[in-house]
Amino acid sequence: MTNNSDYLAELKTKLAPYFQYASGGPREHEEMRCTLDAQLLVEIHQAVGEELDGTLKILDTFPMDDIPEQWQDIANLVMFLVEIDSPVVKWVPRYGLAHLPDALDPRHFETKRNFYDLEPSSGRTLMADRIR
Amino acid sequence: MNKPTEFETIEGLRNIEQMRTRGLDRIGVEQYISEDFYQEELDTIWRKCWLWAGRAADIPNAGDYFVFDLPFLNNTSIIVIRGKDDKIRGFYNACQHRGGRLAYYEKGSCKSMTCTFHGWVFDLEGNLADVPEAEVYGELDHSKLGLKQVSVDTWGGWVFVNLDPEPRWTLAEYLAPLPGPLAGFLEQDSWKPAMGRKGIFKCNWKLQIDSQAEGIHAPFLHGRSIMGGFEMEDVPEWAYPGSPGVTYKFEVHRPDTAEGPGYFRSPLAEAVGRYSTATYYNTDSDEWRAQQQKFPGAVNQSDAERWAFDGYGIFPNTVIMVQGDHILVMRSWPRGVGETLWDYTQYYTTEPTNFGEQMARQHGLLEMRNTITEDMTTVEGLYDSYKSGAITELVISEAELGVAAYQTHIINMVKELKD
User: Fold this and answer.
1) Which of A46, A119, B333, B371 has the fewest beta carbons under 10 Å from its own?
2) What is the number of structural domains in chain B?
3) Which residues, numbered 120 to 179 in chain B, qualify as contacts with chain A under a Cβ-Cβ cut-off of 8 Å?
4) Contact B106 A94 (CB under 8 A)
C-alpha cells in the first residue's frame, strides 16, 4: 500500500461515484438501502468491500469522533456498507431484493431519543424547547 | 401465588406429556381479542404488578427524575424522582391543587417539584412545601396535600413502578426466579444505551411477548437473517408457574457450524469479527466466557459451549435478553385491545474506541434490527387470524412452553388480582 495520501486519492477515484448515497447517518442509510436499486447496492458492496481492510487500517488510527474531513466520505461509505451487507450477501442472491420479502419494513420503527421516549411522533403534542 | 423461594420450574424440552397434563399444550384465543378481558387486564395486571420503568443510573442525583407514562391507563403519568435521602420514589405527575402537570418532559432535574400553573411547590419527597398566595386558599393542611405516591423499588439497577401503594408481592418476591448474580451483572454502571426503537402495531399487546417466548421459529422465520440451523436443543426453555413476575426463561445457543464463528462470508462480516465490539453470532464463546467470569452464575446456567444469550419474560410486558456485554430490554404497551406500542433498547458495557469498533457495533445493532423486523412481521397477521375466527385454539409444542406459560399466567393473574 502506498502512503495514505496516495491511497486516499486511489480510493476517491474508485469510490467517489458512491459518496452521494452514503451521506448522513444510520437513518439516512436505512432509507437509502430501502430505496436504491438492488444491483446498485451490489456494485457499492463490491467496490467498498474490496477496499475494506486497507481502509480500516487507516480509519482506526484517527480519533473516533474526529475523522479528518478528507476521509469522511470514505468513513460514511464503510458505515453504509454495514447497512447493505445483509441485503447484498443474503437477500439479493436469494430473492433479487434488497429487503426481506414478506417482512416488516425496518422504517416502520422510529428511533427513540432515550429509554423513556415512548410516544410515537404522530401522537406527540409538540412542546417548545424546555427552559434550561 | 407462592412465597419467593417456592416457585416451580417446568422444563420444556422433551416434556410435552407434562405440558399436556397441565393443559399447556393448547390455549384459546379469547384473551387476545376480548374487549372485556382487556379491561380486566387494565384493572388488575396493569394496576397491581411491578412494571419495568427505567434505570436508576439515569437519575443519579437528588432531584433527577424521569416520567413514566401509561396513556392506556386513563393517561396515568408517574414522575420517578430521587430524593435528598437518595431514595427513589414515584408520584402521580399531578399537582394536588388542580392536577397540573409537574413534569412535561421525559427526563430532567429539579430542586423541587413546582407546578407551572399556580406555583405550588413540592419537595423531592413529595411533601407540599409552599403555596404562593396561601391566604387565598383559606386553611390548608399541607400534610394532606402531598403528592399521591406509588410504589417504587429497584433490582439490578432497574427501577420498577407498581401503582398499588401496597403491592401484593415485594419486588424481590416478584422476581425470585431470576439468578441472584444477574442483579449484580445488570447493576454495573458501565451499561450504556446504544440504540432504541419503537413502533405501533395493530395487534393485541401480548402477541409481542409471545413472539419472544420461544425460539423454535428461528430456523424458519429468521432463516433469511440469522441463517442458522437451530436445533431444538439450541433453544431450551423453562417456565415458572408459581412465580408472579418471571414467567419463562430461554437460552439461545449459537447454531453449530464447522465453519467457525458466524456464517457470513463477506469482507465486512469477517472484519467485524476481528473487533471486540462484535455482537451476536460473529463472536466465539471464549470471549463471552471472559465476560461471564466477572459475575459467575449470572448467565448461561446450563454452561453451554455455544451459549449466545439468556432471555426472561418479566411479567406482564417485558422481555430481557442478556449476552456477555449486551442487553436488550423489550416492552409491549397496549393502546387498545387491538393496538400496541412496542419498544426496545439495547445496552452495552463497552463503548467503541475507534472507527472499526464503531462499525462492528453498528453491525450488531442492525443485525438485531433485521431479526426483530422478522419477529414483528407475524404479530398483526396472528391477531387477524384470532379476531376473524380463523383459528380458535393454539397448538403448543414443548418448544413453545413460554407462550403457553405466559398466556396461562395472564389469565391466572387477572383472576388473582381482582378485588
Assistant:
1) A46
2) 2
3) none
4) no
